[in-house]
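FIELD: query
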Amino acid sequence: MDILKKELVKKRQSLFEETGGRKVFKRSEIEQKRIQKRLEDEKRDKASAKI
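FIELD: result
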């Protein structure tokens, strides 16, 4: 149980750092982050495929 609580605290802290403590987001902001993450993943996949 302690491991679960520690993991939740760690995730909350990382989310707080990413968002600056905001709790409400516009749909366009969420979609833009999703697209940006997908593009970064594709770049990483291409880079690892070349190696």
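FIELD: remark
The helical segments are 2-19, 27-50.
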